[in-house]
Amino acid sequence: MIRSFLLALAQMGDPAFRRAAFRCFLLTLLVLFAIGVPIAWGASLLGEVGFEQAGGTSPGWERFARYASGTLGAVAAVVLGLVLFITLSTAIYALFLDGIVVAVYARHAPGISPGSDLPIFRSLGISIRFLLVTVFLNLLALPLYILFLFFPLLDLALYGLLNGYLFGREYFELVALRHLDNRSAAQMRRSHRGKLWIWGALVSFLFLIPILNFFAPLLSAASMVHLYRDMESSAA
Q1: What is the C-alpha to C-alpha distance for residues 141 and 139, in angstroms, rounded to an integer?
Q2: Looking at per-residue confidence, does 123 or 203 come out higher?
Q3: Which domain, by its residues, includes 141?
Q4: Would you give the distance in Å from CA 173 to the centre of its chain?
Q5: What's the structural domain count of the chain?
Q6: Which of 48, 52, 157, 207 is 20 to 30 Å from 89 at the Cα level?
């Protein structure tokens, strides 16, 4: 398992990895820009409307209202961008992970087929479903996170246990469904559930480390290819 991470880490400089990271970064910024600009504009507009509704007539107060509402909108857009950046980039990476899988096979198993590319909407659907379920379950666990606030090790254990299953399942499906149908993939996943859970817990902690968390989807996808090939070998 550790070997799969080391092999993936050694390939992070691969051109396919760099292209995926660059495209994901640009697309994430574009999406955030498309979200942030209307928020900033809307906040500024609300400030002006509020000033007029309050019967404001002073030019000085009008300028202040516009400045304050515009600043508030800009700050809200920036904060939202920081909060959503990793979440959005993780979903957007789904558009480029096929290239990562192919690159790993090309370097480490050139004579073996990397399988069939997943349709874009299917891989994106897997990632979006994963993000929604992850957010939902972690919100449900929020009272426990707060309860364990003064016991960091318990918080980390809860985080790893909860998200380890989710990460292990998502990345396994992104690789396994290139080779297997849904039923065969599910059977294989169940037979290796313990290994996938531990692997997923390790991956989940990568997403907690600033800067590294942006590259975590690439590292995770590449690592899962090696782990999947080990599972195939053990089943042979």
Answers
A1: 5
A2: 203
A3: 2-235
A4: 15
A5: 1
A6: 157
Phi, psi of 151, rounded to the nearest 5 degrees: -130, 75
Positive or negative, the CA dihedral 143, 148, 150, 155 is negative
Rounded to the nearest angstrom, the gap between the alpha carbon of residue 170 and the centroid of all alpha carbons in its chain is 11
Q: How does residue 227 score in pLDDT terms, banded at 50, 70 and 90? A: very high
What are 189's two structure tokens? 């996943």
End-to-end CA distance of the chain: 18
Maximum C-alpha span of the chain: 81
Letter for the amino acid at 94? A
Question: Are residues 223 and 4 in contact, defined by beta-carbon separation less than 8 angstroms?
Answer: yes
Residue-level pLDDT at 193: 92
Kindly indicate the confidence band of residue 166, based on its pLDDT and cuts at 50, 70 and 90.
confident
Question: To the nearest 10°, the Cα dihedral for 207, 106, 175, 223?
Answer: -30
Phi-psi region of 160 (alpha: psi -120 to 50; beta: other; left: phi over 0): alpha
Of 164 and 235, more confident: 164
Residue among 71, 70, 51, 53 at smallest CA distance from 61: 51
